[in-house]
Amino acid sequence: METLVHCKLVCKSWRAIIQDDKFWKLYRQKDSNLVYIYMDLTKKNANNLSKDKFRLVCCVDGVFLEKCDLNGKLRLRNPVTKHSLPLPDGLGYKLMRMFYLPTTGNYKIVCGKTGGGFRLLTVGIDLHWRAIEADDKGVLFQTSKKEALLSLSDVKVDDVYFLIKPILDNIAPGSCFADVFCLEVETETLEYTRFPKTFSQAVEPFSWNHKLALADLEKGTELHLWILEDYKKSGKWSEMKILLPSTLFREFSWKLENLRPYSSSNVKDDPRLWFCRADHCVLEYNIKTGQEETTHVPPAGKSLLFSYFPTLSNLNGALIPPAEEEKWLRIKDGARNHVLSCFTELFALCGRFTY
């Protein structure tokens, strides 16, 4: 990555090549370029709040969305270039997700405000958070006192944001329905469907073959999936059951919170599931062959928060600390001098040959 930083500062044509999306698609094909972000489980952060303390909310293509819980301030930050971009405050907002839209080249942030419904922010364009017209009454976050104890859950699937809101069943005490709100981030259209089953415990949402899936463990032996096939028209759901080997759980009890599914890949040809286990290990399970593999083990006393591929993309209007700016200027001059010396040696070498 440091070499790319130097090359990017040589000239405009080199910078254009390195910033091209095709270049970064090739870069992301190598797992060795993946960077992991951990949370320290040995430290108690409750008393460490300050106005300068930002925490990582989510990451999209190497760009961090960070929030200060004390004053609600938000910012985007590229940890490689050290650029940061202040955003409108997000105090009282929750369940934040960030999207990158290749068609426009913009970042969009979606969140929910208690008692106020969905809010949207197009980075670099909007000066304030916007309410979505389809949710102008904020019905999404209007809950009874009992339902307020139930936790909302959300997941992003491609450019669609899904939010699952549990609804208490008055007929069967202890059971819940689930309202599913589907927001197309690019068009800002909001759809709604209801999960057709009742459940007694929280279901886990995740991305399944570019679709929303809700997972539950039935009788401690099978992973039961409900897949939302079409959220626009029919709200059709399909069901699937996967028998899990006991080795995936190790010494932990058979509960969904001990083995949480969070992603899938190529379900038709090579179906695989990724789980995060209670010991914070990341597991890959091949549904077709039944083989499992531990793909990542965090260091002792740490929990995996995010993994991402670094990027050198610029944030329009971003700020850079003065010390970092001086450092970059030195790197820029050094990179140009290095390339110039290389070309000088090359031309001198070529001049030794006669034709």
Question: Brief overview, please?
Answer:
Helices cover 14% and strands 41% of the residues.
Fold topology:
Layout: H1 2-8, H2 12-19, H3 21-27, E1 35-40, E2 55-60, E3 63-67, E4 74-77, E5 84-87, E6 93-101, E7 106-113, E8 117-122, E9 130-131, E10 153-157, E11 160-168, E12 176-184, E13 189-199, E14 204-208, E15 211-218, E16 222-230, E17 236-243, E18 259-265, E19 272-277, E20 282-286, E21 292-296, E22 302-308, H4 322-350
Antiparallel strand pairs: 1-22, 2-3, 3-4, 4-5, 6-7, 7-8, 8-9, 10-11, 11-12, 12-13, 14-15, 15-16, 16-17, 18-19, 19-20, 20-21
Task: Summarize the structure in words.
- With 355 residues, this protein is mainly beta.
- Among the domains are: 1-33, no CATH class; 36-142.
- It is 14% helix and 41% strand.
- It has a four-stranded antiparallel beta sheet, with no helix packed on it.
- A hairpin with a 5-residue loop joins strand 20 and strand 21 (292-296).
- It is globular and about 75 Å long.
- InterPro entries: F-box-assoc_dom_typ3, F-box-like_dom_sf, F-box_dom.
- Pfam families: F-box-like (PF12937), FBA_3 (PF08268).
- Residues 3-25 form the F-box domain.
Features:
355 residues; mainly beta; four-stranded antiparallel β-sheet; 14% helix; 41% strand; globular
